[in-house]
Design a protein that fits this description.
Order of helices and strands: EHEHEHEHEHEHHHE
Largest sheet: 7 strands, parallel
Number of helices: 8
Structural class: alpha/beta
Number of strands: 7
Shape: globular
Distance between the termini: 35 Å
């Protein structure tokens, strides 16, 4: 059996109607997992789930809309997953918010709180909801999609970077707590990826040209190039890895 085989596993992926989350859901299904598509809009989730079911067979995917700022909605996401598939083996915390671009001193309190709540607290909520059953089974994988922003400073997306650094520490803390129960918690830190979420950073041709010039691979990334890392962290290939941040950035941070 392949080390990357996740047949029989059930994975929840937040923010999976597009971008990195969508690509990750398809790759997990490709490798045998049942997947739960979730984002704010039910129709967008339904469309992705239907496409996955059409490609990999009925009952491969379900769609459950949830806003990561809504704790009750997140609990419903977990409950509906268990109702459909009986368990949760893998949680991919991919959804995030970044409503502000600019210097830290000018950010409004409500914008700062939204970033911290959606990018840190919501991950804490979801993880706490799925861990009890993972603990009972003695295994589970939690993947937080962070960012290389959490490894560097920024004068433009500073609050977002703070939240992503906190996600890395959340993974380290929880890896200590849950390792004895066979539960692994890791982060992925992508560089600039061509997604709608990061559109403001890559639509500017001059800015992208400069980013490409200073990136060893001379280009920005694509969603599927992060999806492979998600499969790795969800699969038996990574069973001795926990509390780590896997950087996938074309070499930017070197």
């Amino acid at each position: 059996m392949s080390l990357f085989d996740v047949t029989g596993k059930v994975a929840i992926i937040t923010g999976s109607s597009r971008g990195i989350g969508r690509a990750s859901a398809f790759e997990l299904a490709e490798h045998g997992a049942k997947v739960v598509i979730s984002s704010r809009k039910q129709d967008a989730c339904d469309a992705v789930a239907a496409e996955i079911n059409g490609k990999y067979g009925e009952n491969t995917a379900i769609a459950v809309a949830a806003n990561i700022s809504d704790k009750t909605g997140l609990q419903n996401l977990v409950d509906e997953t268990r109702k459909a598939f009986g368990k949760v083996d893998v949680l991919v915390c991919n959804a995030a918010s970044n409503p502000y671009y600019g210097p830290q001193e000018a950010i409004a309190d409500e914008q700062f709180r939204k970033i911290l709540d959606n990018n840190i607290v919501s991950n804490h909520w979801l993880i706490s909801m799925v861990v009890p059953e993972m603990r009972e089974r003695g295994e589970g994988s939690i993947v937080i999609v962070s960012s290389i922003g959490g490894l560097r400073g920024s004068s433009i997306i500073g609050a977002y970077c703070i939240s992503k650094a906190a996600d890395m520490q959340l993974a380290r803390n929880l890896a200590h707590e849950y390792g004895q129960h066979g539960i692994r918690v890791n982060c992925i830190a992508p560089g600039l990826i061509r997604t709608d979420f990061a559109r403001a950073l890559w639509e500017d041709e001059a800015a992208v040209a400069e980013r490409n010039r200073t990136t060893p691979l001379r280009r920005i990334g694509e969603p599927h190039e992060i999806a492979g890392a998600v499969v790795y962290l969800a699969s038996p290939a990574s069973t001795f890895m926990t509390g780590q941040t896997l950087v996938v950035d074309g070499g930017v941070t070197i």
